[in-house]
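[agent] plan:
  1. take the single chain provided in the ticket
  2. run structure prediction with default settings
  3. attach structure tokens to the ticket
  4. add a short note for the reviewer (M.T.)
[agent] executing step 1
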Amino acid sequence: MRAREHGIVIGTGTPGPHNAITDVAGVRVGHTTLISGEGPRVTGQGPVRTGVTVILPHEGSTFDEPLYAGLHWLNGCGEITGMAALEEFGVLTSPIALTNTASVGVVRDALVELEIGTGRQAWSLPVVGETWDGRLNDVSGQHVRREHVHQAYREAGDGPVAEGSVGGGTGMICHGFKGGIGTASRVVDGYTVGVLVQANHGRRDRLTVNGVNVGERLPAEPVAHEGAGSIIGIVATDAPLLPHQCRRLAQRAGLGVARTGGAGENFSGDGFLCFSTGNRNIPSAALDSATPRTYQVTVLSDEHIDPLFYAVIEATEEAIVNALVMAETMTGADDLTVTGLDGATLAKVLTT
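[agent] step 2 finished; step 3 output follows
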């Protein structure tokens, strides 16, 4: 059950129909989840607790119809590929994938293969983000394969999004509890903002929900190296934004992390990317395509952007809480068990 099903309502904004990133029309999400083996860690054999999540920004091909986008790092102990070009041009030219730290390369290459498969002359710098799942997963075994990426890409859909220990979030730990994938959305001023996180960050004693520090009041076995994880957040909106405005929305996702007690600790990689589907006529980066000399876009005035900031903050906070309450207790490599956060228990702590 998600946070709202337990009566935990984050903020005052109005969610979209699915309270998910897919409430932004055209956005689709697919997961491939890899779980196998148990007992002692044997590099290359397991146990395996990992996967890959793919986000398709609209119903067409981002290779052919790029989008304005922007990036913000709260703390840079992490990786999102393709960011030099994205920051230079302010344009997202690929799907987005999330996985574990050691699998970034193979996931990136798989996205290149998908672009090559379109038959176009590709200029390909795919976007792949990572967080480290090496406590529960044989991360050094690099168990994610390109066929897993292709599967997540093919099966990506709209509507409700699977959360918790799925896809790239399978082996993640958040605030000392089992973490993973979470999502939420807000509808404001006729626009939709959706957020999806891969939550693998935070310390248990700092966990805060709706302004209440709940971490020390919740039962769970301690987990070593708390605060040394990461969170990747993807923000989507149909508001017509320019790249610098997308960057500003991405920055506000860090405030949602802060509201849950995250601090961007020294060994945490906390990166946020925002894309806007509000302009679909941006020239393609294909080398064999004709590029117009000029083109027109629609832009939201900065004087009307504050409600979108608030929407990102609330949706990020709720996405993190959803990741926590949707992730069940998991035992992984070397028999490490990480406790899932029971939503009913959390709701009771918030009201007592």
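[agent] step 4 note for reviewer: Residues 191 and 239 are 6 Å apart (CA to CA).
[agent] ticket updated
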